[in-house]
Specification:
The chain has 909 residues and is α/β, with parallel strands linked by helices. Strands 5-4-18-17-16-6-7 form a seven-stranded mixed beta sheet, sandwiched between helices. It has a six-stranded mixed barrel with strand order 23-27-24-26-25-28. A six-stranded antiparallel beta sheet has the order 30-31-29-34-33-32. A hairpin with a 3-residue loop joins strand 30 and strand 31. Helix 9 runs antiparallel to helix 12 and helix 12 crosses helix 13. The longest helix is centred in the N-terminal third of the chain and has 19 residues. It is globular.
């Protein structure tokens, strides 16, 4: 059987066809009829079925669990008891301290219907605006940038415009990794139009930057200076459309006076760029009679000047009239799968349904009438960072977290964990049982996962897709909207609002929720009164606005030059560049930036269960320039400690010229499930943009020092074929052992069968015999038949377990040279007889003469970097390589790297 749904990862919104037997999803493929991806999927989307396989059940939240005192273990309870307990606790707080003493923190990964019910529960029934979303960390600066300039949170372009552009400007986005299917469209457009120019601005030379015709390696936080200088050039060269500016905009004169000072020479000093490259970028983007699109993501948004970053970029389109036309416009690439749906339903602390503003009394009255309540409170709610600060200060007594992992994703995460630990009552509504945040849950409520949910989502181009459940809910899990509605009914009883709650939350199906949300949009800029589940199922995904009576949605906005402002004119916002929230100093000389990996997603609660998605990036790595590695006395592959006043983490160093000297880069995905401590967000800044309230997660000043380790331990484990659930269960069970080391990582490897990889380092002495014994017990290496080696004098101890010709477990302590090739052997199954006697030997390569394969580049066909380089060295070009190995011919996520390796091989020849 097959069911159409969507991918739950980035905001591209790819259509997915789930193949299943009614009980289990057995495979996925891209939906060729979905306009967002036309059948393509990236590595993450193509492995979705593995995230809901029976192997993952040990990591799922499958029944409500409750503890009535901090420090106790949670115990399984019925749904009735769970919801009644939660309602009593929330009602007691509301009666004693007022509604603003409770808060809800939800997610851009919820469906639109989920978002709508939560928003109505909090702002309508409870009477507080303390509901915010992790979209605050993702897209809120894009929202305020659009509203400041265009008047509405409405992305004006469509994916089809990419193919119609003559110039693409990607800034603050590693699109090749963060939005791979969008990047495939860019590659298609360049192939069809060899004259199309691609400009990429990024502090790091990413795979996206490698593909550029012009790469601008600007210094972190200097975006506004760059865009001002580009506008300066456009004015000087006569590239601005003065007639368009006069007819459709306001505020240009003041901005023109400001950018007069930002010559390319001045900006070159600020941004660390060649003056000529700034001029070239401006001329390409502003070229008369040419179409141009800008694409951006978190590099602009996650900044204490995020609103200004967005507005300054949008200015370039307004000044040249490149908006509201085919192939033109400022295109914000949404980070999460339904961040747009959350914004549409008003599911944030400062918003109301259908793009209404909380600060607008008329808007509040409209929503109150629609919901049948006396009023919606006027006091703005607490946004993400403010909310968790209030939790830490004891002002929030009861907190509800749904479908997100703030203990890992918020800045200054150690402070967030302390706040969660001290909060009187914490509810976590989650599909995954072992996130950093669930450890703090007094009540854990099991939510439905991808493939089990039904509703709608909106992607980056304003396109709404209907997705349907393919398989039943696992265990006792429920859909998110149902949990919120059920809680509302019980809470209403405890608040003395039973009748009101029953009138507000009468829903039996998601369609009833959608229909109510749809009605709130009537007459608004995102009017979708012409849509229905039936239409979406028959005609496929549709863009908004789609008002009643329309035959199709609107592809692009502002074609008539009329904008969603009081005057109908777009606005130029006068601003001057500002530095990053934290600047390097003698004590903290490095600029640490963060970003995404190609094959992982957010806190890895989903992708982290799929072994093959680690093969491209097997462990946390800190990228540094080779000169800095040398000056600091570090080693490529060695350990470094990164710290500032907010926290610390340790990671292995990767020397790369892709990053400037004085900078470092660490992916944001690795949290407490996978490494000791909370990863990079222990160090990031809580300071936020004053308008969007989005924190500066992208940049922090840090010190970096060598981490000296005297003792190391490695453990490898895989279950027999078909028992991968045992490996994933052990992954969860071993997480407490991370804290038994001064530094440690816990990851997966392999392909068909997952291999668990534990690595630990100690500064001084290693573990005691008691610790090693307990650790071996968990690994199943305490069996009398296990192979053993011990050298007490050198503090070396090793064990291995072989069963039916398979190497199922290894523990190396004190000497670990064989870790890589042993991992490969375990991943590939059978143990060659000639290698058995070498299992516990101190050798870095298998003695058979073969070598380890190196990093996997193509996950679809399991092709490694060493294999690719070897093929290129024989004279094969990319086409020949693809014919031989098939790499890059499926999802295409590895194509940028294949092209880069081809250039590397050519230069080495």
């Amino acid at each position: 059987m097959e069911t159409k749904t969507t991918c739950p990862y980035c905001g591209t919104g790819c259509g997915v066809i789930a193949e299943h037997d009614g009980a289990q999803i057995t495979g996925v493929r891209g939906d060729p009829d979905h306009p967002a991806n036309k059948g393509r999927l990236c590595t993450k989307g193509a492995t979705l079925h593995f995230t809901v396989s029976p192997d993952t059940l040990p990591l799922r939240a499958l029944r409500p669990e409750l503890r009535t005192a901090k420090g106790e273990q949670r115990q399984a309870v019925t749904w009735d008891k769970a919801l009644d307990h939660a309602a009593r606790r929330f009602a007691d707080v509301i009666k004693t301290h007022g509604p603003d003493a409770v808060a809800f923190y939800i997610s851009g990964q919820l469906l639109t219907e989920d978002y709508y019910v939560f928003n109505k529960l909090v702002k309508g029934l409870i009477g507080t605006n303390n509901i915010d979303s992790n979209s605050r960390l993702c897209m809120s600066s894009a929202v305020t940038g659009y509203k400041a300039t265009l008047g509405s949170d409405a992305q004006p372009c469509a994916y089809e415009d990419i193919a119609l552009a003559d110039c693409l400007f990607i800034t603050g986005s590693n699109t090749a990794y963060a939005h791979p299917i969008v990047f495939r469209q860019i590659e298609d457009a360049r192939k069809a139009n060899p004259d199309l120019k691609l400009i990429v601005a990024d502090p790091r030379r990413t795979d996206t930057a490698e593909a550029a015709d012009l790469y601008l390696p600007l210094l972190p936080g200097t975006d506004v200076a760059l865009y001002h200088a580009m506008l300066h050039v456009m004015l000087w060269d006569g590239l601005c459309d003065m007639d368009y500016i006069a007819a459709h905009t306001e505020g240009f004169d003041a901005l023109r006076d400001t950018v007069r000072d930002f010559t390319p020479a001045v900006a070159a000093q600020i941004c660390g760029l060649p003056e000529a490259d700034i001029v070239t970028a401006a001329r390409w983007l502003g070229a008369l009679s040419k179409n141009a699109i800008s694409l951006w993501c978190q590099g602009l948004n996650q900044s204490a000047q995020g609103t200004h970053n967005n507005a300054a970029l949008i200015h370039l389109h307004l000044a040249t009239g490149k908006i509201g036309k085919p192939g033109c416009g400022p295109f914000s690439l949404t980070g999460q799968p339904n961040a747009m749906g959350g914004r549409e339903t008003g599911g944030m602390a400062n918003l109301l349904s259908a793009h209404r503003d909380l600060a607008n009394a008329e808007h509040r009255a409209e929503v109150a009438r629609f919901w049948g309540v006396d009023d919606v409170p006027a006091k703005p709610g607490l946004t993400a960072v403010e909310l968790f600060n209030a939790v830490g200060e004891g002002k929030i007594k009861a907190l509800w977290i749904a479908c997100t992992n703030p203990a890992q994703s918020l800045p200054e995460s150690d402070k967030v964990k302390a706040a969660l630990a001290a909060c009187d009552f914490v509810v976590v509504q989650e599909a995954a049982r072992h996130t950093d945040t669930t450890a703090y849950a007094d009540l854990l409520l099991p939510a439905a996962a991808w493939g089990e949910k039904s509703g709608t989502v909106t992607n980056s181009e304003r396109r709404i897709t209907r997705l349907q459940a393919a398989i039943p809910f696992r265990g006792e899990s429920r859909p998110d909207w149902r949990i919120a509605a059920d809680f509302a009914l019980v809470l209403g009883k405890h608040l003395g609002k039973k009748s009101l709650a029953e009138k507000m939350f009468p829903y039996a199906t998601t369609e009833e929720v959608f229909n109510e949300h749809r009605e709130t949009t009537r007459g608004r800029d995102l009017d979708i009164t012409g849509l229905s589940y039936a239409l979406l199922e028959k005609e496929g995904p549709q863009q908004w606005p789609f008002p009643e009576g329309a035959s199709q949605g609107k592809v692009r906005l502002y074609e008539d030059g009329v904008f969603a402002t009081a005057s109908g004119r777009a606005r130029f916002v006068n601003m001057r560049p500002a530095p990053t929230a934290e600047t390097p100093s003698a004590r903290q000389p490095f600029r640490l930036t963060t970003g995404r990996l190609r094959d992982q997603w957010h806190g890895m609660s989903r992708t982290g269960t799929v072994a093959r998605l680690y093969n491209h990036a097997p462990e946390p790595l800190l990228e540094m320039h080779p000169d800095d590695v040398y000056r600091r006395g570090l080693e490529d592959g060695g350990l470094a400690q990164v710290h500032n006043k907010r926290g610390r983490f340790v990671a292995r160093v990767k020397a790369t010229a892709a990053i400037r000297s004085g900078q470092a880069f660490m992916p944001m995905h690795w949290g407490g499930q996978f490494m000791r401590g909370g990863g990079v967000n222990t160090l990031t800044m809580p300071k936020f943009d004053p308008t969007s309230k989005q924190p500066e997660l992208k940049h922090a000043a840090v010190a970096i020092e060598k981490f000296e380790a005297q003792w190391r331990i490695v453990a490898l484990f895989r279950a027999p074929a078909g028992a991968g659930a045992d490996t994933l269960a052990l992954h969860a069970a071993l997480q407490p052992w991370l804290d038994q080391c001064d530094h440690a990582t816990l990851t997966l490897s392999g392909r068909e069968e997952p291999v668990l990889v534990f690595q630990g380092w100690m500064k001084q002495e290693g573990w005691s015999n008691e610790q090693l014994t307990a650790f071996d017990n968990q690994l199943g290496l305490d069996d009398a038949h296990a192979l053993r080696f011990m050298d007490k004098k050198r503090n070396i101890s090793k064990r291995a377990r072989i069963e039916n010709g398979l190497l199922l477990g290894v523990r190396l302590a004190g000497e670990t040279k064989a870790k890589d090739w042993l991992t490969e052997i375990m991943a590939h199954g059978d143990l060659p007889a000639d290698l058995r006697r070498w299992l516990l030997a101190p050798v870095e390569q298998p003695p058979s003469g073969s070598k380890t394969r190196g990093k996997v580049i193509c996950n679809c066909f399991d092709v490694s970097e060493d294999e690719i380089l070897a093929d290129y060295s024989t004279g094969l070009d990319l086409a020949g390589l693809q014919e031989k190995r098939k790499c890059g011919t499926s999802c295409g996520s590895c194509l940028p790297e294949l092209k880069r390796l081809a250039a590397t091989a050519k230069s080495a020849a």
